[in-house]
Amino acid sequence: MTKPLDPNRSVWTELRRLVPSIYLPMGMVTLGMGIVLPVIPLYLEDAGLSLSMVGAVLAAAGIGAAVGAIPASSYAERRDNDELLMISIVVVAVTTALVGITEAAMALLVLRAMSGFGFGAIGQSRQLFIARSVPIHFRGRASSVLGGTHRFALVMGPLIGGAVAETWNYESVFVLAGVVTAIGLVWGVLPGGRENRAGKEIPPPARLGVTFRKHRRLLLRGGTGPLLVMAGREGRYVVVPLVGDRLGLSAGEIGSLVALGTAVDFVLFPFAGWVMDRFGRLNAVVPAFSIMAMGMIMLGLAHTTTQVAMASVLIGGGNALTAGSVITLGTDLAPDDAPGPFLAGYNVLANSGLFIGPLVVGWVADAAGLDVSAFVLAAMLLGGVAWIALVVGETRHGPNKVSGLAE
User: Fold this and answer.
1) What digits encode the pLDDT tens for the residues 186-221?
2) What is the rounded end-to-end Cα distance, in angstroms, of the chain?
3) Which of 9, 30, 68, 335 to pair with 37, CA 20 to 30 A apart?
4) Cα 358–325–362 angle (5° rounding)?
């Protein structure tokens, strides 16, 4: 039987305890995702797909993550959270590796959608693990370290992916990413990796429909701004590599550009939570997403590698200061009578931006050019900022204190 946790343990003891169960599997899966990040738009374009189809294939992962959020959460709560994590890692590893062996658009759409479903399920699994297993006074720091792990993987991944593509070929990148993702499965055999639910009562299934009907105004008005900023945020992973390709950069150079922006993101992200808690949510969200929008505008105007690099740094710096903001807004707004079901709906709405962003880049780039697609992403970011500031308002005192959103 597992020893009960010491309530007086330090935060460092708690963080070390979470390495095998949270940081290792999430780190390896995110590293695998980062490896293909700068390469997949180039691979799809090289396969002869139009820019709109490139956007659709990349958007399929976001669709999978958004659509799969509620069933994945339900599976974990009703059955076995560890089983969900294991199955999801296998799904992501296999589908990522298989992308490099086909150029058929429909097959690529299906593989990316399945990969997104698996990645979203992994996130749901670890979020539930934190809620069940981490004391409330440690959760903020535990989540921030998870964000840092994610960012570090997205710094290293594009560098590795770009170098492998330049040395060998695109297909090798997808195989490597699948193998790296699969390494996350070692979580299951490490001490402390599995969730201990002995003696804990499993709560009854959440009544999602009732919650959505009761809090529909809070859900829709609270989630619309995050949807827009998530779309702008995700679209950068498509438009930056394609702009680099337009300027004649190699896969390795494009990987370095993507990694540069993410490196700035990694260095600055610890400030985001401090600003939100110290000065309020809007004092972090409004400047941060506005900085990202400025970077997108600069990217649309870029004509040299130096200008693209400067835009990437600005986008990365702005994104760093948004770390945890969408999650924090949802948590702030969650009603006391049904926080779990509300957050499930909120995350589906916000995560819709994960596929809307790439779709917008593809459609607009085909119709009007890549520079215009960057401007449209900037407009979406600014629209999201305006919505959050003017419609949602400051949320750190909860939904009942937010003008116009209280039920």
Assistant:
1) 988 888 777 765 545 555 555 667 667 777 888 888
2) 45
3) 68
4) 5
13-191 and 210-407 have identical folds: yes
Distances in Å between the Cα of 65 and the Cα atoms of 21, 34, 72, 124 are: 21, 16, 10, 10
What confidence tens digit (pLDDT) does each residue in 56-113 have? Answer: 888 888 888 878 777 877 777 667 778 889 999 999 999 999 998 988 889 999 999 9
CATH T-level assignment (fold) for domain 13-191 = Growth Hormone; Chain: A; (1.20.1250)
Q: Which of 126, 138, 111, 132 is nearest to 36 (CA)?
A: 111
Residue 1 pLDDT greater than 50, yes or no: no
Give the residue ranges of DSSP H helices in 207-338.
Answer: 208-214, 216-246, 251-268, 270-279, 282-301, 305-320, 325-333
- Domain layout of the chain by residue ranges: 13-191, 210-407
Backbone angles phi, psi at 238, to 5 degrees: -95, -45
Report pLDDT digits (tens) over 110-126. 999 999 999 888 877 77
Rounded Cα distance, 291 and 314, in Å: 7
Specify the fold of 210-407.
Growth Hormone; Chain: A; (1.20.1250)
Who's near 376: CB < 8 A, 6+ residues apart?
Answer: 360, 364
d(CA 358, CA 234): 7
pLDDT digits (tens, 9 = 90+) for 249-305: 887 788 787 777 777 777 776 677 677 777 778 888 899 999 999 999 999 998 888
Burial label for 10, CB within 10 Å (0-12, 13-18, 19+), is exposed
**Torsion angle, alpha carbons of 204, 210, 215, 217, to 10:** 150
pTM confidence score:
0.73
